[in-house]
Design a protein that fits this description.
By secondary structure, the chain is of the alpha/beta class. Helices cover 39% and strands 22% of the residues.
Length: 295
């Protein structure tokens, strides 16, 4: 196969129940260019690798797959390991429990990026799936839109199986391995180099509740987001508007964590009021009163 225009980056770990559907959806793509599917398995023990190997051997497009099967290293180290293995000008993503639904997905997104060099990311609408039932599209907007780094700094807007980005802009900082999330900080790095295009075409299904993030409880998620904002603050210290947005978000996450721990300790009668400022205590009490009044 000649050098691919697009590399599909797929990470797997113990996803035997989903992986066949995922991989076959990647191989059904109809393109006017070469593409490759780079699957990096992070030490699966449930038969995931064997299913992939069978597809490579028996599927008519199995030759497109490059399987990187290795010992478990964790999500972030696996991505850092896999990115340099991708040869394409553009990188598309689909984790081992999601899948694509439109055979023209790669063609549509790659064509857009080829024709619009001032854009660094292209993403589209997906259906959110829970227990194999559609619970709604995301994003819900049905009109094309253009976003910037400033817009993205306000919060994540892209689902992983919808994203395609320029490989040349995927320059990862040293702190990336410390990040609690792989996709959002990567998108921020790449969005620094160009605009973001949203296509209101539904071309993938995203499974809710099967990933590491969605199985965390609320406080654990807030702590991860707090840490992520701190890392991004370091990276975007020279971008005033973006930095201010990241700072505001970090402060919001920090307060939610404090609020949760305050009420847990209050309930358990283990709280030490001498270690909490009067202003913070007052804000916590006011928030509690507001929540009761709104019920």
């Amino acid at each position: 196969m000649t050098k691919p225009l697009v590399s599909v980056c797929t990470l797997t770990y113990n996803q035997k129940d989903y992986i066949k559907q995922t991989v076959e959806s990647l191989l059904m793509q109809e393109t006017s260019f070469e593409y490759e599917v780079v699957i990096s398995d992070d030490g699966s023990t449930d038969g995931t690798v064997e299913i992939i190997e069978d597809i490579i051997k028996n599927h008519e497009n199995g030759h497109r797959i490059r399987l990187l099967a290795h010992a478990n290293m964790g999500v972030l180290p696996n991505y850092i390991y896999t990115f340099p293995q991708c040869q394409g000008k553009y990188i598309a993503f689909c984790e081992g429990d999601d899948y694509w639904t439109d055979p023209k997905k790669l063609e549509i997104q790659a064509r857009f990026l080829e024709e619009n060099p001032d854009f660094s990311i292209c993403f589209h609408q997906v259906d959110r799936i829970l227990d194999d039932k559609v619970i709604g599209p995301a994003p819900k907007e049905n009109v094309e839109a253009v976003y910037t780094l400033s817009d993205l700094s306000k919060g994540s807007m892209m689902y992983t199986p919808s994203v395609m980005m320029r490989a040349e802009h995927m320059n990862l900082p040293d702190w990336y391995v410390e990040s609690p999330l792989f996709d959002y900080p990567l998108q921020m790095m790449v969005a620094r180099k160009g605009k973001i295009k949203y296509l209101p075409i539904n071309m993938a299904d995203y499974r809710v509740g099967t990933g590491i993030w969605t199985t965390d409880n609320g406080t654990a998620q807030m702590k991860k987001l707090e840490k992520l904002m701190s890392l991004l603050q370091r990276e975007f210290a020279g971008y005033d508007e973006v930095y201010e947005t990241l700072t505001r978000r970090k402060n919001e996450y920090t307060f939610v964590i404090i609020e949760h721990e305050f009420y847990i300790r209050l309930y358990n009668q283990t709280i030490d009021f001498s270690k909490i400022s009067f202003s913070t205590t007052l804000k916590l009490v006011v928030n509690k009163l507001k929540s009761k009044l709104l019920k």
